Amino acid sequence: MLNRVVLIGRLTWDPELRYTPNGVAVTSFRLAVDRPFTNQQGERETDFIDIVVWRQLAETVANYMKKGRLVAVEGRLQVRSFENNEGRRIRVSEVVGDNVRFLDRGGDRSGGSGFNQGYDNPGGMSKDRGPSDDPFADDGKPIDISDDDLPF
Predict the structure, then answer these.
(1) How far is it, in rounded angstroms, from Cα 26 to Cα 15?
(2) Could you tell me which residues come within 8 angstroms of residue 11 by beta carbon, excluding any fewer than 6 positions away?
(3) Structural domain boundaries in the chain
(4) Are 52 and 27 a contacting pair, CB within 8 Å?
């Protein structure tokens, strides 16, 4: 059997970080995902999918994600049910994410500070560099460097 979900969409609100009574971090957020087709009026419809992430990933998402950010989520679909305060049985479908990728730079749509996998902190999160700090910003233009500066 296989239960894998891969979604790409935008956060509809800032992630909410909570802790279980045992101290385990859990973060929830909702992802707006466009359908790959249009309706009869020629408009794209959007699905709003609840996502839950746990432990270290929960803290990372809560610290670096903001409303409007484009993310990819990989995980599994989970359907659970519970009884609400009125005694009615409620059924909830959500994706339990085990991998979340940041797909845009924070300032593009959300206006918040952006974070990505930085070259000054391999494998970790680092503050997004501005265009003037980017060593590849000249893209295609000759770089003025002497042979003495090269390590080879």
Answers:
(1) 10
(2) 29, 30, 31, 32, 65, 66, 67, 68, 69, 71
(3) 5-131
(4) yes
Q: For 33-54, what is each residue's pLDDT tens digit?
A: 999 888 888 888 999 999 999 9
The angle subtended at Cα 5 by Cα 62 and Cα 125, nearest 5°, is 30
Which pLDDT belongs to residue 148? 65
| 42 DSSP assignment | S
Fold that domain 5-131 belongs to in CATH? OB fold (Dihydrolipoamide Acetyltransferase, E2P) (2.40.50)
The answer to whether 124 and 118 have CB atoms below 8 angstroms apart is yes
Q: Do 96 and 78 contact (CB within 8 A), yes or no?
A: yes
Residue whose C-alpha is closest to residue 125's, from 62, 33, 42: 62
- In the chain, which stretches have pLDDT less than 50? 108-132
pLDDT at position 96: 95
Please name the residue that has the structure tokens 């959500």. 94
